[in-house]
Design goal:
Blueprint (H helix, E strand, L loop, with lengths): L1 H12 L13 E2 L4 E3 L8 E7 L9 E5 L2 E4 L11 E7 L7 E5 L7 E9 L2 E4 L1 E2 L5 E4 L5 E4 L5 E9 L5 E12 L2 E13 L13 E4 L1
The structure holds calcium ion.
């Protein structure tokens, strides 16, 4: 009885874990993927992990061998991130983990991480953090033929609703960011095959 009381007191006294960067308490959620993330020639095990006692800002983390980065939640409900794939995206040594941030929703943005100076960091797309993966309209992010260059397609229904208004932008990797180098607008008949799987053309894919 005394032991139970002591254990209960200890539990009550132990504070909920914070965003301290420690991986204790996290458990793997979903599949593990394997690829060389930091470009050192060795294969790293990449996982998404969750600790539901942590604050939302660090409840999910993506881990590549021993380096980790928080997967910050989207500012709307019903989002549960999932490790989607590894692929060569930024033109530098090592593959980039891609996390889909709301796989159950119609609009599916992703986060792309990369190893930089021994840390795992989240890459930026222009001024934002979200790489469009899919939507109810043609939407996609994919590699181009040039290393470190990606193409992003977004669209909406045109005034004539038998067409999409499509925007196709090219971005080039520079540091931790993809900077836009070109953008074009065009219309495409609804039903035209414009997009497929996100990052489908990137090399060294694992999923
Ligand atoms: Ca890379």
């Amino acid at each position: 009885m005394l032991l139970v009381a002591v254990a209960a007191a200890l539990l009550a006294a132990s504070p909920a874990p914070r965003c301290d960067g420690e991986l204790a308490g996290y458990h793997v959620k979903g599949k593990a993927l394997h690829g060389d993330v930091d470009g050192d020639g060795r294969t790293d095990r990449v996982t998404l992990r969750v600790d539901r006692r942590r604050p939302r800002a660090c409840r999910h983390v993506v881990v590549a061998r021993r380096i980790a980065a928080p997967v910050r939640p989207l500012p709307w409900p019903g989002t549960a991130p999932r490790l989607l794939l590894l692929a060569e995206i930024d033109g530098r040594a090592g593959v980039e983990p891609v996390v889909t941030l709301s796989p159950a929703n119609v609009y599916r943005p992703g986060a792309v991480f990369a190893a930089r100076r021994g840390k795992l960091v989240r890459l930026r797309l222009g001024r934002g953090h979200l790489f469009p993966l899919d939507d109810e309209f043609p939407t996609e992010t994919d590699c181009t033929g040039d290393p470190g260059e990606i193409e992003v397609i977004t669209s909406q229904v045109a005034e004539d609703d038998s067409y999409w208004d499509v925007t196709r932008s090219r971005y080039r990797s520079r540091g931790r960011r993809f900077r836009r180098v070109s953008r074009e607008h065009f219309q495409s008949p609804v039903g035209t095959e414009l997009t497929g799987k996100a990052f489908r053309s990137c090399s060294s894919r694992a999923q």
